[in-house]
Amino acid sequence: MTSVDGESYASIASRYGLFLKEILKYNDLTASRELPAGTVVYLQAKKKQSQKGLDKFIVEDDSQSLWDICQRFGVKMSSVRKMNGFDAGYQPSEGDTIVLRGKRRIKK
Q1: Which letter does DSSP use for residue 105 in this model?
Q2: Helix (H), strand (E) at residue 10
Q3: Helices and strands, number each (H, E), in the chain
Q4: In terms of Cα–Cα distance, which of 57, 59, 67 is closest to 27?
Q5: What is the pLDDT of residues 86-99, one digit of tens each?
Q6: I want to staple 48 with a disulfide (CB 3.0 to 4.6 A). Which of 43, 58, 79, 108 is the partner?
């Protein structure tokens, strides 16, 4: 869903019968923060990787955070960090390539 003016994570959680802690987890947040209108808010857990055909993303400008990119593509931030070897302090720079879909490993 996309937030509208005046909404908060708490108000959205209440409307959909969720706990605030749940909605924050679904959106890779540890604490509630300001919710600007037009922000994508997930009401269930995001995927571990992006959809087929969307293997990577090239950062368009320095203002994009890893959180913004993960929200845009509906992928858990922990999974993106793991696939790319990023630490918690990683900040994307223009031109960086972010892997959104890992190669599937075949079990023997």
Answers
A1: P
A2: helix 9-15
A3: 4, 2
A4: 67
A5: 999 999 999 999 99
A6: 79
* 86: alpha, beta or left? (left if phi > 0; alpha if psi -120 to 50): beta
30 CB-side CA count, 13 A? 2
The CB-side HSE value for 23 (13 A sphere, CA atoms) comes to 22
pLDDT digits (tens, 9 = 90+) for 32-72: 999 999 999 999 999 999 999 999 999 999 999 999 999 99
The pLDDT score that the predictor gives to residue 102 is 82
With a cut of 70, say whether residue 104 has pLDDT above it. Answer: no
Cα–Cα dist 22/45, whole Å = 9
Query: Per the structure block, which two tokens stand in for 24?
Result: 């924050």
